[in-house]
C-alpha cells in the first residue's frame, strides 16, 4: 500500500508542479492535486483572529484547505472508484510563522469529525496541521446504539489502522507545494482513539512519522471495550455506586496514601505504592449506607470495586483480559457504570464480533465470547505489536501520557504494553517513553481532580528528542481546570516526581527520581494473581515494594510482597513473594513468583 501511495504521489507531483516551483497562493492549491481519488473543495485565506473554534482563535493568518479522498475496500488504498470517503482539512500558517514541521492530529471515540480545535492550537505554534474524520462521516456513527460504519469493513479498518496513512501523503504533499519545500519533520498527535491510531502508525505505517504522541492509547481496543463491559455489569443493581459514593472512596484512598510521596497535595504520585484496602470502608454494625452522604459501603459495592480494581478475567483460565483500574481513579468511574459499555461495547460486539443485532451483551460469555472477540474484532482495530523495530530503526520516537485517574482507560495498560515492548526489543527500546499523570484523567482532566494541570506539553518533549536526540527527562503540565497557576512535573516511567524545595504547586520544585529497586512487573501485570481462582482485592493488599528486607539467614536484599486475600467469609489466604535484587531475568522471576513462592 505504501509503495502504491508513493507512486501516486510522485505522479501527482510530476503533473502538478511547474519546472521551477514558486510559492502558489492559497487559492491555487484547489487545483494542485491531479489524482482523481482526491478532491479539494476549499482553499481559502483566513486573516488572523477570524476563526474561532471552541474558544480557540487563530493568532496567525492561514490557508485553510479542505477536501476528500476516495478509498477502496481493499487495503484502504486511494481509489477513485472506491465507495468510501475520507474528509480531511489542512491549516497552513503564514510562511513567516511556519516552523517547518508537519503535524497530523488524530481522532477521538468513534471519530467521524475533525479535531479543529486541536489543529488551531498547534497552528498558532507554527505547525502545518492536518486532520481527518478517520474515513467516515459523523452520520455513520449512528445514534449511539447502532453504529453503521462498523458494518463497513473498509471504514472499520480505516478508523484506527489506516485513515491517518491515507490522509497524510495527500496533505503532506500540499504542505510541500505551498511552501515549495517538504516539511523538515513530520509529527503525529493523538489521544484515546487517537492514541490507538498512534500505535497503529508505528506498527503498520512506520515510514510516515518522525515523532508520535499517543496519549491514553486504546490500542487494545477489542479488550478495552470488554473492560467497559466488565465494569458496567459489575455495578448494576445493588452494586451501583453513586457519584457521591465514588468520591467518598477516592477521598479515603487519598487520605491514606497522599503523603507517601512526601507532599500533601490531594494526589498520589504512584498508586502502585499505595496499600489501601477498600474493605476497610465496608459498613460495620450500626452503620447505614447512604448514596447521597456516604460514610461506608455495602458488601455489594465493595465487591464491585474489587472487580474494577482486578479487571476482567477469562473464566476458563483466570487470565487477565484487560488490566483493572488504579487506586484514586474511583471518582471518575460513573461513566463506566452507566454509559461506556452501552455506547461502545454493545455496538462493537453486535456489529463486528457477532454480526447479530440481537446479541445480548448482558449474556456475554467471559470465555468463548472472548475468543470470538480476539478472532473477529482484534485484527481490525488493535495495534498490539511489541516489535516496533521498523519504526525505531528510522530513528522515530513515541511518547505516551496516561492519567492514573483516567475515567475510561485503565491506567496500567500503557505500562503493560511498555513492558512488552521493552521485553521484545531490549536495548533497542530506547525510542519510547510513557509519562504517567498523577490525578490525570482521560486525555486531560478528570473533573474530580480540578487542581491537576490538564495540558501536557508533549511536543516540547518530543520535538527535541526527534530533532536533536535530547531524550526528555521530564515534561511540563499546566492549566488546571480550577484556574490556578499550578504546574506539575511529569516523569518518564518508572521515575516519579519527588519534591525538593519551594512551592508545591510549581513544577520546578520537583525532580524526577527513578526507584532504587525496579517496580516488579508483577505489580503491573496483575493477571496471575487470579490463577488461583480467587478474587483478590488488588492492589489494596500489596505491601509497598519500596521497603526491602534483610532476613537474618539470607544475605541478599530482596523485596517482600505480602498478599492477604479473602477467599470467602470464613477463610483467607496468605501469599508471600520474595523478589531478590540480583535476579535479572524478569520473565522467569515472574513465573517463579507466581508458581513457587507462596
Ligand atoms: Ca501527594
From TrEMBL:
<dbReference type="GO" id="GO:0045493">
    <property type="term" value="P:xylan catabolic process"/>
</dbReference>
<dbReference type="GO" id="GO:0046872">
    <property type="term" value="F:metal ion binding"/>
</dbReference>
<keyword id="KW-0858">Xylan degradation</keyword>
<dbReference type="InterPro" id="IPR029058">
    <property type="entry name" value="AB_hydrolase_fold"/>
</dbReference>
<keyword id="KW-0106">Calcium</keyword>
<keyword id="KW-0378">Hydrolase</keyword>
<keyword id="KW-0479">Metal-binding</keyword>
<keyword id="KW-0624">Polysaccharide degradation</keyword>
<comment type="similarity">
    <text>Belongs to the tannase family.</text>
</comment>
<keyword id="KW-0119">Carbohydrate metabolism</keyword>
<keyword id="KW-0719">Serine esterase</keyword>
<keyword id="KW-0732">Signal</keyword>
<protein>
    <recommendedName>
        <fullName>Carboxylic ester hydrolase</fullName>
        <ecNumber>3.1.1.-</ecNumber>
    </recommendedName>
</protein>
<feature type="signal peptide">
    <location>
        <begin position="1"/>
        <end position="16"/>
    </location>
</feature>
<dbReference type="Pfam" id="PF07519">
    <property type="entry name" value="Tannase"/>
</dbReference>
<dbReference type="InterPro" id="IPR011118">
    <property type="entry name" value="Tannase/feruloyl_esterase"/>
</dbReference>
<keyword id="KW-1015">Disulfide bond</keyword>
<dbReference type="GO" id="GO:0030600">
    <property type="term" value="F:feruloyl esterase activity"/>
</dbReference>
Amino acid at each position: 500500500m505504501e509503495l502504491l501511495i508513493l507512486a501516486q504521489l510522485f505522479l501527482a507531483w510530476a503533473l502538478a508542479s511547474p519546472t521551477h516551483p514558486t510559492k502558489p497562493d492559497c487559492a491555487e492549491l484547489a487545483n494542485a492535486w491531479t489524482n482523481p481519488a482526491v478532491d479539494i473543495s476549499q482553499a481559502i485565506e483566513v486573516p488572523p483572529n477570524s476563526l474561532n473554534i471552541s474558544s480557540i482563535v487563530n493568532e496567525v493568518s492561514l490557508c485553510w484547505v479542505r477536501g476528500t479522498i476516495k478509498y477502496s475496500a481493499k487495503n484502504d488504498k486511494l481509489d477513485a472508484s472506491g465507495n468510501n470517503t475520507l474528509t480531511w482539512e489542512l491549516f497552513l500558517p503564514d510562511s513567516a510563522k511556519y516552523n517547518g514541521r508537519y503535524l497530523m492530529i488524530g481522532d477521538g471515540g468513534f471519530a467521524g469529525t475533525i479535531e479543529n480545535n486541536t489543529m488551531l492550537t498547534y497552528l498558532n505554534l507554527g505547525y502545518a496541521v492536518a486532520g481527518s474524520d478517520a474515513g467516515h462521516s459523523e452520520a455513520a456513527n449512528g445514534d449511539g446504539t447502532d453504529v453503521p460504519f462498523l458494518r463497513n469493513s473498509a471504514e472499520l479498518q480505516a478508523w484506527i489502522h489506516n485513515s491517518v496513512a491515507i490522509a497524510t501523503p495527500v496533505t503532506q504533499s500540499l504542505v510541500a507545494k505551498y511552501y515549495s519545500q517538504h516539511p523538515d519533520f513530520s509529527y503525529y498527535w493523538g489521544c484515546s482513539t487517537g492514541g490507538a491510531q498512534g500505535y497503529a502508525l508505528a506498527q503498520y505505517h512506520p515510514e510516515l512519522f518522525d515523532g508520535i504522541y499517543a496519549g491514553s492509547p486504546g490500542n487494545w481496543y477489542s479488550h478495552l471495550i470488554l473492560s467497559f463491559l466488565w465494569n458496567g455489569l459489575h455495578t448494576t443493581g445493588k452494586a451501583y455506586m453513586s457519584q457521591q459514593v465514588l468520591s467518598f472512596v477516592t477521598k479515603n484512598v487519598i487520605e491514606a496514601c497522599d503523603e507517601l510521596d512526601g507532599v500533601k497535595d490531594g494526589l498520589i504520585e504512584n498508586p502502585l505504592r499505595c496499600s489501601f484496602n477498600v474493605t476497610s470502608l465496608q459498613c460495620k454494625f450500626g452503620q447505614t449506607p447512604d448514596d447521597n452522604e456516604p460514610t461506608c459501603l455495602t458488601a455489594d459495592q465493595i465487591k464491585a470495586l474489587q472487580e474494577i480494581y482486578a479487571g476482567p478475567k477469562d473464566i476458563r483460565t483466570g487470565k487477565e483480559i484487560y488490566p483493572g483500574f488504579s487506586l484514586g481513579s474511583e471518582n471518575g468511574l460513573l461513566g463506566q457504570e452507566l454509559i461506556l459499555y452501552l455506547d461502545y461495547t454493545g455496538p462493537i460486539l453486535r456489529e463486528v464480533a457477532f454480526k447479530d443485532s440481537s446479541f445480548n451483551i448482558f449474556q456475554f460469555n467471559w470465555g468463548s465470547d472472548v475468543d470470538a472477540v480476539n478472532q473477529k474484532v482484534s485484527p481490525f482495530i488493535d495495534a498490539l505489536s511489541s516489535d516496533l523495530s521498523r519504526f525505531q530503526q528510522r530513528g522515530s520516537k513515541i511518547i505516551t501520557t496516561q492519567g492514573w485517574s483516567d475515567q475510561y482507560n485503565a491506567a496500567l495498560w500503557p505500562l503493560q504494553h511498555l513492558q512488552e515492548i521493552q521485553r521484545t526489543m531490549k536495548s533497542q527500546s530506547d525510542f519510547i517513553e510513557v509519562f504517567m499523570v498523577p490525578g490525570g484523567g482521560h486525555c486531560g482532566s478528570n473533573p474530580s481532580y480540578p487542581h491537576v494541570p490538564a495540558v501536557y506539553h508533549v511536543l516540547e518533549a518530543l520535538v527535541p528528542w526527534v530533532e536533536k536526540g535530547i531524550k526528555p527527562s521530564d515534561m511540563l503540565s499546566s492549566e488546571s481546570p480550577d484556574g490556578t497557576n499550578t504546574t506539575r512535573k511529569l516523569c518518564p516511567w518508572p521515575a516519579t516526581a519527588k519534591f525538593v524545595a519551594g512551592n508545591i504547586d510549581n513544577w520546578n520544585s520537583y525532580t524526577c527520581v527513578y526507584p532504587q529497586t525496579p517496580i516488579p512487573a508483577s505489580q503491573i501485570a496483575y493477571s496471575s494473581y487470579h490463577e488461583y481462582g480467587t478474587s483478590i482485592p488488588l492492589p489494596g493488599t500489596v505491601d509497598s515494594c519500596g521497603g526491602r528486607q534483610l532476613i537474618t539467614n539470607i544475605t541478599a536484599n530482596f523485596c517482600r510482597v505480602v498478599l492477604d486475600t479473602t477467599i470467602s467469609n470464613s477463610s483467607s489466604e496468605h501469599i508471600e513473594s520474595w523478589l531478590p535484587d540480583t535476579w535479572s531475568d524478569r520473565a522467569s522471576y515472574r513465573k517463579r513468583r507466581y508458581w513457587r513462592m507462596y
